[in-house]
Amino acid sequence: MTNQHNNQELPPKTCTIDKLVTVPEDIEKVLAGKKTATRRNGRYADIGEIMTLQGKDFVVENVYSQALGELTDEHAKQEGYENVEEYKESILSFHPGMPWLPQMRVWVHEFRPVSE
Q1: Is the Cβ–Cβ distance between 71 and 84 less than 8 Å?
Q2: pLDDT of the residue at 116
Q3: In what order do the strands lie in the sheet with 50-53?
Q4: For 19-45, what is each residue's pLDDT tens digit?
Q5: Residues 109 and 39 sit within 8 Å (Cβ to Cβ)
């Protein structure tokens, strides 16, 4: 398993992993295997940290910074959306008045279920 960045290069976390995925619809997507990443404006988890949703454990495999302008439809699919436009509409609906700035950076948290 290769990580794009190692933990030493990451700044301190700005929030805790229990706040990483909180929207009920997103929790359902993660549990169904349709969402394998989440983007936040801060860093909520370390690589190797465990997120527990409804009794199921997911391990964070990668954490890295990305500009909104770098998002592709593949990234949107990781988030559980068909394409970037659908993802963007969802994000803006949660954050009324937030501009979608291509240069704005977010933290990507990629995770997978912990094997039984």
Answers
A1: yes
A2: 61
A3: 37-40, 105-113, 56-67, 50-53
A4: 999 999 999 999 999 999 999 999 999
A5: yes
